[in-house]
Amino acid sequence: MPVASRAVELAGPTLTLRYATVADAPALFELGSDPEVTRFFSWGPYTSVEQPRAYIRTLAGQRRRGEQLDLLIVHRDSGPIGVTGLVELGRRDRRAVIGTWLGRRWWGSGANEESKALVAHLAFEQLGLERIGAYADVVNGRSQAALAKLGFVREGVLRRWHRHGDAVHDVVLFSLLRDDWERSPLAAVPAELRGEPPEAFVVGQPASGGAGGDDAIAGSPSSTENGG
Ligand SMILES: CC(C)(COP(=O)(O)OP(=O)(O)OC[C@H]1O[C@@H](n2cnc3c(N)ncnc32)[C@H](O)[C@@H]1OP(=O)(O)O)[C@@H](O)C(=O)NCCC(=O)NCCS
Fold first, then answer.
1. Ligand 1, atom 43: nearest CA belongs to which residue?
2. Dist CA 188 CA 222 (whole Å)
3. What average pLDDT does the segment 41-63 reach?
4. What is the pLDDT of residues 83-103, one digit of tens each?
5. Domain-by-domain residue ranges, the chain?
6. Among 6, 116, 132, 221, which is 20 to 30 Å from 158 by CA?
7. Nearest-angstrom CA–CA distance, 73 and 11
8. How much is the pLDDT for 218?
9. Which residues line ligand 1 (CB under 6 A)?
10. CATH topology (fold) of 9-201
């Protein structure tokens, strides 16, 4: 008989990544109502707590369908500080795209590195992914520099990749392969996994070469679409 699995949670030295619940909506509202934070997203800034509440309500279905695996970034002392996650899962090719946003006061704090280290651990060690992509708007110098210093490799520019209302944006594509990760500062960050990742996101067992899906699943909106 199937046993209900415990929701996945990742713990690092100062941060925990976990599923958001509706009780987190006020904290997300506070963080995401800053226009500087959402400048490069198709959404925001939040103007009502109902907006993060509605976002949180979509997450369980997105996880189940293998469309989006968003995790709340929770600081040991300060509570929720942002969101990170994986989208655009390609099961056959064992890849996904990472996105992250942090409340303004957490920029430059090291939280980006630790949260990405935890997601990379999940992706390469638990889900069996072989590649994590990342997008940064061509004018988002901060995001590009943040990715590069963590070992993500710049691959080129995707022209007219993201549509935000009537505006269409070019983005820089970065990637972190399993080998890159092993050499990057991210691999040195201690990460403890608790619970089970959503089944739809498990594409293979890295050690055994395991059972990967070979059916391509259409990607969900990318990081700049979902605020990841
Ligand atoms: C993107 C984000 C997660 C990065 O996290 P962060 O904590 O700000 O990143 P870091 O401070 O570790 O790294 C940024 C680096 O860029 C540098 N930098 C800042 N502005 C820059 C600019 N305009 N051009 C180039 N480099 C810049 C910083 O000095 C820093 O480098 P350093 O550590 O060597 O000094 C965070 O800024 C954020 O949440 N931004 C809003 C949401 C967002 O844009 N997400 C990305 C979607 S495309």
1. 101
2. 27
3. 97
4. 999 999 999 999 999 999 999
5. 9-201
6. 116
7. 10
8. 26
9. 37, 40, 99-102, 107-108, 112, 135-137, 140-143, 145-146, 149, 223-224
10. Aminopeptidase (3.40.630)
